Sequence to fold (84 residues):
Amino acid sequence: MTQEKAVEVLSALICRGRHISPDSISPDTNLVDDLGFDSLDAAELLAAVHKETGQQLDVSSVKDFLTVEGLAKKLSDSVTGGQK
Fold:
């Protein structure tokens, strides 16, 4: 999965979970500062990612992925094994 595709998947999951418009987020959107994510929101998002993609992301804190793009990189790396 490319990082661009990962951004698309994550954006869709975030929009669905937060009931917001896709226009409300971008790759640079800060999940904590801009969307008010807390540890429960992070756990719910990670569960949705796992359900949607089959990938279990190794993230111990919401601070491990502050932006949509940061989390997309982790997702893309987990799918590709870090290879481009």
